[in-house]
Sequence to fold (115 residues):
Amino acid sequence: MEARAVTRYIRHSPRKIRKSLDVIRGEKVGVALNILHFSKEKAAYVIEKTLRSAVANLMVGKMDENINPETLDIKETFVNGGPPMKRFRAAAMGRAARIRRPSSHLTIVITTEKN
Fold:
């Protein structure tokens, strides 16, 4: 069985989130949570929270069975760009400079099957 969790409108750029996602892709959930919990990356907190949500979604979906989170596999992880926030800052000679603050949408899919 599979379960997924999606976190939208994260205030980090997709490129920085992908750095942390590449480390945990294909790992067991227990190992991935351990890596993320002790990581110094700012995006690791959001990824860990989304991964815990996916585990909870799977457990709610299969209430009749005992599931050990240590045996679950991460099947798929990806991050897409969200809408950028557009801001303006004062520049030289009375001009305005545009600032684009990126956002991201994170998706994590976990499974009970062996790959």
Remarks:
- The mean pLDDT is 92.
